[in-house]
Amino acid sequence: MTGNRSRRRDRVPGARLSFGRVVVATMVSVLLLGAGNATAARAPWERVEVIQELLNGAEPQRDAIQLDLPAVTQDGSSVAVTVDIESPMTQDDHVERLYLFALGNPSPELLEVRFTPLSGRAGISTRIRLDSSQTVVALARTSDGDWLADVRDVRVTVSGCLSRDDTYASEDLMQTRVRVPPNFERGESAEVRTLIQHPMETGLRTDASDRPIPENIVRSFEAHLDGAPVVTARLHRAIAANPFLLFHVAPERSGELSLSWEEDTGDKAQVTAAVRVD
Amino acid sequence: MTHIQQVLWSGFVIGLLFGAVAERSRYCTAGGLREWWRDRNPRRAAALLVALAVAVSGTQLLDAFGWVDLRSSLYLQSAFSWLLMPLGGVLFGYGMMLARGCGSRTLVLLASGNLRALIVLPALGIGAAVTLTGPLAPWRLALMEATSVTPPAPGVPDLLRLSAPGHVAAVTILVLGLLLIALIRLRLYRYPWDIAGAVLIGLLIPAGWLVTGHIGADDFEPVPVESLTFVAPIADSIHYLMLSTGIRAGFGVTVVAGVLVGALLAALAGRRFHWRSFDSPGHMLRSLGGGVMMGVGGALALGCTIGQGLTGLSTLSMPSGLAVIGILLGARLAVIMHEAVVPGQPAA
Fold this sequence. Notes:
The structure holds 2 protein chains of 2 kinds.
Chain A: H1 2-10, H2 19-39, H3 49-55, E1 65-68, E2 72-73, E3 79-85, E4 95-102, E5 109-115, E6 122-128, E7 134-142, E8 147-156, E9 176-179, E10 190-196, E11 218-225, E12 228-235, E13 244-249, E14 255-263, E15 268-275
Parallel strand pairs in A: 2-8
Antiparallel strand pairs in A: 1-3, 3-6, 4-5, 4-7, 5-12, 6-13, 7-8, 9-10, 10-13, 11-12, 11-14, 14-15
Chain B: H1 3-25, H2 29-39, H3 43-64, E1 80-81, H4 84-98, H5 103-111, H6 117-132, H7 137-146, E2 148-149, H8 156-159, H9 164-185, H10 192-215, H11 231-243, H12 251-269, H13 281-300, H14 307-314, H15 318-339
Helix pairs in contact in B: 1-5, 1-10, 1-12, 2-3, 2-15, 3-9, 3-10, 3-14, 4-13, 4-15, 5-6, 5-12, 6-11, 6-13, 11-12, 14-15
């Protein structure tokens, strides 16, 4: 508008701007601007530096990966999330890494998982913390170097009614629970559920007297079958308290599944479970 | 079937039974209180006491055997609002008298052809959602925080420091007292079918606890421990109808669906299905106002006549007692303010 007004002051002969012309010009420029924006529309992750660094210019495919989250949740402190990626999971063609990001959290990183052909299926479930309504992104890299991505918007409403205790019984800390199927079929993947009791202190909270509570999280998880890695995971502070992780394993023969968690203090928890192949 | 599907289907069956029995026995807190206070007819009110006695004894048995961890339920949380519990109860009680039926009764009425419920239910559900997660939610949370108190224990037996045998004796005396008042003093013994209906409804409360707290107690994905309640579940059912592709139904939603189906089947089988509607705009306004008050009040008090009145009290929770006292006060107030002047309602 200011541009139009200054031109009017120039009084160029024959170019007097009627009200109608101004309206038409404004509409055209708005349309052009809109069209410009539409062509420049970018995927939500492109605004996030960590993701840009990972992708390094690559254009992710959107079809073979499925990110599953509730559209609306009343409890942002623990939101169930599942990622499933279509892949043969052979030595030549498998998913190597999976990254989860919550773009609206104080720090976007949620989880980084490394799969192996021994996983049998590139899928995980966990529970995450979401600060507010926002976009969650799953990004995966295959052994061919291709990138896959899926995006979900989640609306987080204020917590319903349940108040949560802020104290954690210290004798339960680092206690683990594991559920492995009673028997496997050779080479077929099946679900393993794991959970470790841990507050996953973000370092962002203060206690009753306003002193910051230091960050204290479980930072990594590893699953090995007879010494061979199945999945390894790097956990960030927005993984919900008592980290839950569901992964898959496709054993060729009976063996021993060994699971270990490591806290950022260096403390470890370890547990083994028998895998029986019929 | 996963444990979650088992919980959902069990919820549907519990709702089905509740709907059928409540339709057949005309179980209704609002109606019972109104007939008792206004017409001096305690028959339906006595049934409420029998249901409460059965709910308390069944739930306390589950607790004693350690089958359900009631302490993780909403009713036995360590802190509560001394203001919102009774205030929400008063709003709910007043609204239920205006709308002539609480949440569960309105579901049963809808399934037997009462179109008035089509005003009351959305008003209740949206009123509750507005208060729980909508525009009123920040106010609710601020008020809750400002008025929150932490008693030494949320359960009455713990508050009284009862020993284990003392706990058993107190529950026995309470249950026998309720039964004596209902059966002898209020003469319910003359109506065996009413007793049977109330006993069945009372039994569904521990059944609900067992489903969510025992079948649903998975190490990795535990289901919230709850039993029958109708305010938040009616709101959640409306949410679910709108957003089912993006959210999962919970126990409460399948209970609501079950109640509708059960009551419809019972009404059809008993030839009691009749289309009914409003007599006047004033009638419609009373229902609308009553529905909104029930929704807002029920959200503030964390439950309704069933949710706090049966389920909450069955845990012997002190805050539930406050909410129920609020509901009774609100209902009484509504009877005093409105019942004498409502035309066409002969007083006994």
